[in-house]
Design goal:
Elements: H1 3-21, E1 30-34, H2 40-48, E2 53-56, H3 59-68, E3 74-77, H4 86-89, E4 95-99, H5 102-111, E5 116-121, H6 135-144, E6 151-157, H7 166-184, E7 195-197, H8 204-209, E8 214-217, H9 219-222
Parallel strand pairs: 1-2, 1-8, 2-3, 3-4, 4-5, 5-6, 6-7
The chain binds pyridoxal-5'-phosphate (PLP).
Amino acid sequence: MDARKRRIDDIEHEIITACERSGRKRSDVTIVAVTKQVSAERAKEVIADGIFHLGENRSEGLLAKQHQIKDHVIWHFIGNVQSRKVKDFINQIDYLHSLDRIGLAKEIQKRADQTLDCFVQVNVSGEESKSGLSPEEVGPFLDELAAYDKVRVVGLMTMAPFTEDTELIRQVFRSLRELRDEMAAKQLDYAPCQLLSMGMSNDYTIAIEEGATHVRIGTALVGTESEG
Ligand SMILES: *Cc1c(COP(=O)(O)O)cnc(C)c1O
């Protein structure tokens, strides 16, 4: 078995056992293969292995991949968005994981042809280097989004702190889940807020145990191009 197939099989096994540990169904967790560091060729191999959700964090990378990949892919944009770039790609994606300000919602409202499914990015850990709203800001933010019918909030997204402390990572994911439950309880028709985008190569099993519905896995799944 080649290295690529083994990587996917290992991850699949990890996901299944994390689901079992936490009493969840495998079908409740979607793998978003983050292909930002690899070629379209490598991305096509992942698709051939049955993963149809791809994530990119820059519009240039997204558009280049889309130019070369003709399969039916569900495209996730996971990076910070500069408002002036919105028009370049907003009608080319299925999900935006990084909605973090009203200015961005305004630009989406102006540029999107149809309603876009968005995750609100939350900076749970409070690290200054991370983007996202503070947890306290999320409620008022959702209320404000009532004015933007091109934005539908399907869930919340976060990035765990860069640390070896798995209990701290778990706490961050758990806080996001609790916040998601609070926001879903508002029952806003434009913000059902059922989903949780959390977990990357190093922490996706913890994220799944804490309720992730979308894990964004890059290096562990597709490697980096320099590895060959
Ligand atoms: C790059 C990236 C990932 C994937 O990271 P890996 O550690 O390679 O799995 C996930 N989410 C976001 C927002 C990213 O920028």
